[in-house]
Amino acid sequence: MSTDQLPVRIITPHDGLDAFRYAFSSLIRDRRFTLELAWRMFLRDTRATVRQSFLGYIWLVLPALANSLVWVFLSGTEVVSISSGDTPYPLFVFVGTLLWTAFNSSVVASLAIIDEARGTLAKVNFPQECLVLVAFGKAFLNTAATALCAVPFFLLYPIPLHWGILLFPVGILVTMCAGIALGLLVVPISAMFNDLSRGIHLGLRFGFFLTPVIFPLPAAGLGRTLMLWNPVTCLVVSSRAWLLGGEAALTAPFIVVAVISCIMLGVGVLFLKVSLPHIIERLGSG
Amino acid sequence: MTEVLIQAENISKKFCRSLKKSLWYGITDVCHSLSPWSESAREQQGEKGQLREQEFWALQDISFEVRRGQCLGLIGHNGAGKSTLLKILNGLIRPDAGQVTMRGRVGALIELNAGFNPVLTGRENIYSQAALLGFSRAEIAAKYEEIVEFSELRDFLEMPLQNYSSGMKVKLGFAVASQLEPDILLIDEVLAVGDLGFRFKCLNKISDLLKKCAVVFVSHSMTQVMRVSSHIMMLKGGREAFFGTEVAQGLEAYYQLFSGGTLSVTGNGAVKLRALEVWSGESRCQLEGALQIQHGDTVRLRVTLQADPHIREAVIQVLFWNHEMIPVLEISGGESYGFHFFPDGDQTVLEVEMSNLPLNTGSYFASVIVTAPGLEKVYCQADNSFRLTVGAGSPVSGVGCVCAGGWAVL
User: Fold this and answer.
1) A103: closest CA of chain B, how far (Å)
2) Domains, chain B, ranges and CATH?
3) I want to staple A44 with a disulfide (CB 3.0 to 4.6 A). Which of A185, B35, B128, B259 is the partner?
4) Who among B27, B127, B133 is closest to A189 (CB)?
5) Is A63 exposed, middle or buried (0-12, 13-18, 19+ CB in 10 A)?
6) What are the residues whose beta carbons fall under 8 Å from the beta carbon of B58, sequence distance 6 or more?
7) What are the two backbone dihedrals, phi and then psi, of residue B170, each rounded to the nearest 5 degrees?
8) Residues A195, A127: contact at Cβ < 8 Å?
């Protein structure tokens, strides 16, 4: 092979636009390799976690199941009383939990990408953006497992089939994008000082109650105002409304948040690419 | 001339001594690099060229080029910047100044088992490792058999990796990594892996690759550096202390870094080494000194020993060690080992003539060992008792001893 045909890589200290241009072109150039590698890594990580437990895949389902059963129980025994309108409450809470799981596990997975791959990042040069896909895959697996345990609920409380149901997967997908994007924007900083990621983990616990997951969006009052400021609200409420009906979908805010999330996701991947050499340098092989 | 595949121009890199500061600088750098307005090299040169508090230059102003078929041996003390340079070449971190141009596919034999998962089986790890190193799906399928064959681990493929011995893991790692067909190969101290048979296999595989690639080779084993390198660069405190094609000279510079350990005396103390003198022609030295000789010179050694009264009989040996702490030459007493003597009163003075010393070019450390006749007790072992620096041998082979053979054409 002559020199002109060989791929050339120029390594410089350049920051800013130069670095972005380089990151972008390598994202495009490595795309096929990235997909293959992401798939391999996803398989590797999933198999490894599953193989280390007796119950295996069941552990994917259990947390979500437990969570929604708790709320069904609380509401059934009328310790707390929540009205979910015409929709049966168990169904309502389950779909809410499913959407929250999609968001929550996306944030958690994307916050963890650097820490989990530390050793590999510090020693092997590979298209690091595949870690984002792996995070996506892990979050998706979690969500899918949760969705699987929704099946009995739907058998118990059948819902009328309508076209809106088709929008529900879109809702899930956008919710995941939003979660991944949030994590990605923080991860370059939190890889070094973990204060931020700890803060976010804490925030997610409050977020659960600041989002209409286990109760409908309040009709009025401070709660409603606060929740409407929460960008996850419109994702959860709209998706659930599309699937179950009964609530008013917040379609316009949904579209705005969806567009912003997708843009942020792209920006987040670029940020990650540009900042990783600096991060690797500071982390060492830990 | 073949094409230049690696071209490094004035690379510099700074590191920070304090963790908190380092992380903070990291964040500043990240923010800086994320701002699209932050300007590129030219304007930054000023700022980037400055050291901040607690920083130091891990690499400074390193330039070189490597062509296909050439091998650059990178040597230096621990912390001299070798691995940092390799990380920059591998594209893992970026320099703070300068520029590297890499042409072609880069293969790295660096940490062979980064990316392995202990719970998964050997077979699964082959697949994920190969993907990580950049094999395409088709390539993995095509090379899988070869990898398994090379690793010699066919019977253990279905076993989880955590049950592999460390040697087996490295074998597996090497088997995968060596199937890459790179244009540029970066090697960091991995040649000596596995058991003896596998080591030879590794070396053969690497010499195959050497012919087709531009190689950067980091090692502390001078024998290996000597064997494979066409150029030597020695780093000292992040700077280039030697660069050239005279491999032997480079090694000499490396040896100079470690000009000598100090005398260490062990043994049960029944015999004490009181004095020592070595000489050859005009030059001479005492205990802990260094003697400069030429290959084939005759060296005389005189030791003064003081033995406890109950020691009736003892054996003295002189051993020469090379820089890798491998013993290369023993001076015996004409019998199977050492020289038998009968200590006498307060002082015993022994002298030995070592004629036509076959030691090759390099530096050697001498140990004087006094033991009981059956070797069951060590009375006195004086390591690093003196040093010989030998010139004019046969530097190319890198072996410890050279002797002239009586060749004839029949």
Assistant:
1) 26
2) 4-105+181-257 (3.40.50.300), 264-391 (2.70.50.60)
3) B128
4) B27
5) middle
6) B13, B14, B15, B81, B84, B238
7) -65, -40
8) no
Cα–Cα distance, B384 to B262 (Å, whole number): 6
C-beta atoms of A120 and B136 within 8 A: no
Contact A282 B32 (CB under 8 A): no
State whether residue B1 sits within 8 Å of chain A by CB: no
Averaged over A74-99, what is the pLDDT?
78
Residue A160, min C-alpha distance to chain B (Å): 45
What single letter denotes the amino acid at residue A230?
A: N
A8, A17, A192: residue with CB nearest B103: A8
Q: What is the pLDDT of residue B42?
A: 43
ipTM over 0.90 threshold:
no
**Among the listed residues A186, A194, A180, A182, the one whose alpha carbon sits nearest the alpha carbon of residue A282:** A194
Q: Are A37 and A127 in contact (CB under 8 A)?
A: yes
In this prediction, residue B191 carries a pLDDT of 59
pLDDT < 70: residue spans in chain B: 1, 36-49, 190-194, 258-261, 335, 393-398
SS3 state at B190: coil
Checking if the pLDDT of A89 tops 60, the result is: yes
Q: What pLDDT score does A286 carry?
A: 47
